[in-house]
Amino acid sequence: MAIVETRKLTKEFDGDVKVVKDIDIKTSDGEFLVLLGPSGCGKTTLLRMIGGLEQPTSGQILIGDRVVNHLPPRARQIAMVFQSYALYPHMSVRNNIAFPLKAAKVDKAEQQRKIAWAAGILGIDTLLDRKPRQLSGGQRQRVALARALVLEPNVFLLDEPLSNLDAQRRASARDELQLFQREIGTTTIYVTHDQVEAMGMGHRIAVIDSGRIRQ
Fold it and tell me: 1-77+157-164+187-215 belongs to which CATH class?
């Protein structure tokens, strides 16, 4: 687990368009922080900077007690789950979950141990031989979470992961996510534009509007 902190974090595009403006946030260790705001407010850009997918124009990002601005995503010990889940359609669930472990050159026995562990936590151990097209939206979400979990990250970054689900499935997926986060105790930052979703999930909500924290 780790504390995530940003100090005066700013992102400009084209030299003068500020989409994130002097943002200061600091999580507690193991906290579930929700970033709430409308589309285009800067919340996804903020998440991408924390994850190392965007470089800030100015300011600092700290994970634990070290500044990570210069580190690539993999070196930050962060896992991201996006709105699309980004599963490989031609691969089985097992191979989707194994993909980051293979990329990290983890040996096969350890790969299988971690796959079984993550699949067990998320209740998808009976789905390992299926392809993504054979899964429901909620099941695909859990596969994406399992793929992130096998890396045992210090921080989870979740970018509107429930937005592709219908209302009924979204409600049950919210409950599953909360249980999952409580069980693993990993610091989690969750982005959403949905006020109901935000109110029912995190330990704390940070409201973002026009690139600034408003609350």
Answer: alpha beta
Name the residue ranges covered by the structural domains of the chain: 1-77+157-164+187-215
187 with 156: CB under 8 angstroms? yes
Length of the chain: 215
Distances (CA, A) of 95 to 107, 109, 146, 156, 162: 14, 14, 11, 21, 23
- DSSP per-residue string spanning the chain: ---EEEEEEEEEETTTEEEEEEEEEEPPTT-EEEEE--TTSSHHHHHHHHHTSS--SEEEEEETTEE-TTS-GGGGTEEEE-TT----TTS-HHHHHHHHHHHTT--HHHHHHHHHHHHHHHT-TT-TTS-GGGS-HHHHHHHHHHHHHTT--SEEEEESTTTTS-HHHHHHHHHHHHHHHHHH--EEEEEES-HHHHHTT-SEEEEEETTEE--
In this prediction the pTM is 0.86
103/15 Cα distance (integer angstroms): 36
Q: Per residue in 112-164, pLDDT tens?
A: 999 999 898 888 999 999 999 999 888 888 898 889 889 888 999 999 887 77
Cβ-count burial 136-173 (b if 16+ within 10 Å, e if not): eebbbbbbbbbbbbbbebbbbbbbbbbeebeeebbeeb
